[in-house]
Amino acid sequence: MGVTSSSGLDKSSRGRDVLLEMEHRRGHLRRNLRAALRSAIQEGRLAAGTRLPSSRRLAADLRVSRGVVTDAYDELAAECYLDTAPRQAPIVADVARAEPPMPEPARPRWTYDFIATTPDVDLFPRRAWLRACERALRSTPNDALDYGDHRGRIELRTALSEYLARVRGVRVEPGQMVITQGFTQALDLLCRALSARGSTTMAFETPSLADEWVTVRAAGLRTEPVPVDADGLRTDRLDELTADAIVVTPAHQFPTGAVMAPTRRAALVAWAARQGTFIVEDDYDAEFRYDRNAVGALQGLDPRRVIHVGTASKTLAPGIRLGWMSLPHELVDEVRSAKAAADSGSPALDQLALADLLTSGAYDRQVARARQVYRRRRDRLVAALTQALDNPRIDGTEAGLRGGHRLGHRCELLTALGVRVRSCHRLYQWRYIR
Question: pLDDT for 196-219, tens place per residue?
Fold first, then answer.
């Protein structure tokens, strides 16, 4: 209910009339009065220098005991909201005003969305995820909610090691896996672990996703470019590098869509073994191959040199923020320590829900469903272009989100539509076409 009248303020001070909104609820009077006064001070309704009523006067106005007011004054003085002196009513301290809230940027609504780094989140399996969360909550022991292994929940690491072996040909034991908050954190943790070993440089395919270069540089490493062509990474340029590690997308290069040729896969692995360097395999959307089964992960050729990184961002949704790394034995402890320092571990319940999707088969069903939707969309786009244009040139592997997400895109498709594309490596930033 409403509170002090304007007569509650000392007329000799430069105080202002103020209305303190507080609920007269037994057992909560002290807390409610303290919160009402704090809020009035923070919002500026009680200005700095205002002398408040004496505890006796305010207690009479509020019709509460004097002890309620005294305790509230004492606690606010301890929090530095009030200045007090013996046998004097407290004075409002000079408290910095909060900055005005910044308006939230409105998400643009595109007439045609050609972005290739995000799946169609409308396909997120809400019911399956809800059931998985419910099962995880019912069956999870209490200690799973405590601080645990910084590598992640063993249930998820076990389910992932089996899934990746079956679907991607990855050779990894659960103990060699670390759960992350997506690929960005995985790359950051690897950079920090490698930097602690004395590494200074990481190589990238070019063109590639610019955000990853920023992550590496923020971790203190330099970057080196390696060109790609229609067969993927130019392995004939590897001997020119001084890099201690290289990030590649062999199953489906971003943004060109090239699949690394078998001879180049072998050459890359041989170079890493010869130089003692690591290969970071970004296996970001290999599940979405439309013409045939995706080529197996590069990690299967040499688990000692290749670090396989995957996420649920493309198969489920980016907001899930769950990824994983399959590490060589020698890096496990260092990456686990980096993960512990970063955030003490990924959310346990989300990990258990994803483990449930994997073991129940719901994850496979979701991937199959999304693959079918994306394939249909890509086929419709290609058919429309073929019908509308005179012998359009449509290159690239039938794979990934570029061919199936909403409308899909490639440099060749945009060029065929009469859109000038200045640089393909920035293609993922083109979202709207009139």
Answer: 999 999 999 999 988 999 999 999
Residues, the chain: 434
Banded pLDDT at 23 (limits 50, 70, 90): confident
Alpha-carbon distance 77 to 90, whole Å? Answer: 8
> Where in the chain do CATH 3.40.640.10 domains reside?
121-364
User: Does domain 121-364 bear CATH number 3.40.640.10?
Assistant: yes
Q: Tell me the pLDDT tens digit for each residue of 267-323.
A: 999 999 999 999 999 998 888 887 777 789 999 999 999 999 999 999 999 999 999
Architecture of the 6-92 domain: Orthogonal Bundle (1.10)
Which of these, 63, 78, 80, lies nearest to 22 by C-alpha position?
Answer: 63
pTM summary value = 0.80
Where residue 227 falls (left for φ over 0; alpha for ψ -120 to 50; beta otherwise) is: beta
Tokens of 381: 């786009």
pLDDT of residue 44: 86
Which pLDDT value is given to residue 4? 41
| Residue 152 C-beta-side C-alpha neighbours within 13 Å | 31
**Residue closest to 187 by CA, chosen among 272, 127, 144, 249:** 249
**Averaged pLDDT for residues 99-110:** 78
Q: Report how far Cα 180 is from the mean position of its chain's Cα atoms.
A: 9
Long-range contacts of the stretch 35-38 (C-beta < 8 A, 24+): 36/3, 37/72, 37/76, 37/81, 38/76, 38/79, 38/81
Q: How far apart are CA 248 and CA 250, in angstroms?
A: 6
The one-letter amino acid code at 141 reads P
Residues of the chain with CATH 1.10.10.10: 6-92
End-to-end CA distance of the chain: 57
* CA dihedral for 282, 288, 294, 300, sign (positive or negative): positive
